[in-house]
Design a protein that fits this description.
mainly alpha, 3 helices, two-stranded antiparallel sheet
Length: 117
C-alpha cells in the first residue's frame, strides 16, 4: 500500500488589536458625528436668525415694502438701496424678516433703517 501524503495549510487568524478597534470605531463614528454637527449648526443658525429678527423688529420703526407679483428680493434690494451691494441688502432684509429667500406677493417686508429715506 502506498500512503498518500497530505499537507494542510495552516489557518491564518487575524486579530483585531485595541488600536485597530479604536481606529475602526473612529472611522464608523466620524460621518455620524459630522452629520449631527452640521444638523445642529443648521438648527442653531435658524434659531439665532429668528432671535435676531424678532429682537430687531421690536426695537425700532421700519418702513415696509409690499411684495409685487414676480418681484424678487434682489429687485427689492436694488430699489431700496441702489448704491449698496444687493447681496448685503438681501441678507439684511432676510435677517430682519426671518425669511430665507422665499417671498410671496402681497407680503409686507420690513426694510433695514439704514436703507429708508
Amino acid at each position: 500500500m502506498t500512503a498518500i501524503a497530505t499537507t494542510t495549510t495552516p489557518t491564518i487568524r487575524v486579530r483585531m488589536t485595541a488600536r485597530g478597534r479604536r481606529a475602526l470605531a473612529l472611522l464608523v463614528a466620524a460621518p455620524v458625528i459630522a452629520a449631527g454637527s452640521l444638523a445642529g449648526i443648521g438648527v442653531l443658525g435658524d434659531a439665532l436668525a429668528g432671535a435676531v429678527a424678532s429682537a430687531s423688529s421690536q426695537s425700532g420703526t421700519f418702513e415696509y415694502v409690499s411684495v409685487q407679483p414676480g418681484q424678487s428680493l434682489w429687485q427689492i434690494a436694488q430699489s431700496v438701496a441702489p448704491g449698496a451691494d444687493p447681496r448685503d441688502v438681501v441678507a439684511e432684509i432676510e435677517m430682519l424678516n426671518g425669511i430665507a429667500g422665499a417671498i410671496q406677493p402681497g407680503e409686507q417686508l420690513a426694510i433695514p433703517a439704514q436703507y429708508t429715506h
